[in-house]
Amino acid sequence: MTTFQIPGLDYGSGESSPEPEEEPMDNHMCIDCYSIAMKIVQQPRGTPTPDKYLVVHELSNEELALFGNVLRESDVDPDGDDFIPHAPLPDCDRCNSYYRASCKEHPLFWVKDREPAKSSKPEDRARMTAPAFISIKTSSIPNAGMGAFAEACIPVSFRAVGMVFGPYQGILIDDASESERDGYCWELRSSAGPRFIDGSNTQYSNWMRYINSSRHDKEQNLLAFQYCGGVYYRVIRPIKIKDELLGGKSRCLRANRLR
C-alpha cells in the first residue's frame, strides 16, 4: 500500500530533527549617546557595536538573566525594612513595575567606587574613591566647600534609574545628637531602630561625601535612597560634562530618614 505524501517535504526516517543551535550573542551595557540613556544592547558575537553606543560594561549571560525579573505586588513593601536581603531597587516608572534587579528595557547600572592606591595618604581616601569620570574640586555653590563634577556625560534611563552610585561610606553611630554636628550624616532605617552613617572623616568615607545639595529643584540631578542598609544616589536627570552632581535641596536632609 502506497502512503500518501505531500510532494516537496522531506519525511526522512520519521525521527524529529534537532533544534537549531542559538547564535551566540554579545551583551553590552551601553550609553546611548543620542538619547543620553542607559541601554542593554544584544548582537551576534563579534559584531561591531553601532557608533551611537558607548560600551561601559560587558554583560555575562548570568548578569543578563538578572534583568527584567518582575516582582509580584505581594513581594513589594515600599515602606518596609530595606535591610531585608534582595529588597527591590526603586521601580521603573515607565513600566510601572518593581524588579528584582532592574528593568531590562530601562536598565540600572551600578557604578562602583575605585580602590585607592596603596601609596595614597589615608586622609585622601575619600577623594581617591571617585570613579574615573568624576572629579573632586571646589563647588560651584558659594561656601559649599568641595564638590563632585562630571568629566563625562552621565545618563539616565528614561523616567527610570540609569546610573546608581553608592553606598555612602562612613562611620556608623547611634547617638542622634552627634549626627547633627555637621552635614555628613544620613539616618538609616532598620528593625532595630535608627542608626546614622557619618561621612565627615575622609579616612573612612568615600567620594559621595562631596555631593552637595542643590539650591532649587531644577538644579538637582541626584536622588538619595536607602537599599539593603546603605545609602545610594540615583541619577534623575542627564548630567553634562563639567556639571556638578547635586542632591536634595537641603544638606540637613542628611540627618533625616530617607524615603
From TrEMBL:
Pfam families cross-referenced by the UniProt entry: PRDM2_PR (PF21549)
Domain SET per the UniProt entry, residue ranges: 132-250
Location of the region described as Disordered in the Swiss-Prot/TrEMBL record: 1-25
InterPro entries in the cross-refs: SET_dom (IPR001214), SET_dom_sf (IPR046341)
SUPFAM superfamilies linked to this entry: SET domain
Protein name (Swiss-Prot/TrEMBL): SET domain-containing protein
Organism: Heligmosomoides polygyrus (Parasitic roundworm)
